[in-house]
Design a protein that fits this description.
alpha/beta; ten-stranded mixed sheet; 10 strands
Amino acid sequence: MKEYIECLKNDGVLAYPTDTVYGLCVRFDHKEACEHLRNVKNRPLDKSFPIMVSDIEQLEKIASVNELDLKLVNRFMPGPITLILHKKSIIEPWMNDNRDTIAIRMACDDNLKKIIKGLGVPIFMTSANKSGQPVLQSAKKIREQLDVDAIFEGIPKGEKASTIVDCTNGYKVVREGLISQKMIDDAVGR
């Protein structure tokens, strides 16, 4: 575990098999790490990265959450869901393309939680691929196609990407994964 934490502490890109797909991650509080990830993916400058937290405490440090948001957090996190929430002032403009919102997931995997906790800050986590290309689903393909600093060997647990829910103006499913709009409506009591 220590080698992966050190990789992230030193602004490296780590490939990790998540509960949905293989992902690429870097520490979220270093601009150099974000730029490194952007270069590995060939990602456009105007497209920010989702943030992954280890627990509710990390989430509440970077995002504003109301009572209904917390119902979704408590019902579906950790799990295959990304919530778009209003950011707190700790989020600098370069972290989210100067938007008022951030996209947040919570780590499901115990090892990934340990890595994030050992790092001491959330991570940017995005799919393991070049922008616009199919997601790479094995360590072998990642080694062949991406210039990452470390790979946590494993197999992603799902085939579908996470459900994305915009919580900034009601509760709207932006991308449906395993969690449906009806499940969201039921959780917030609509």
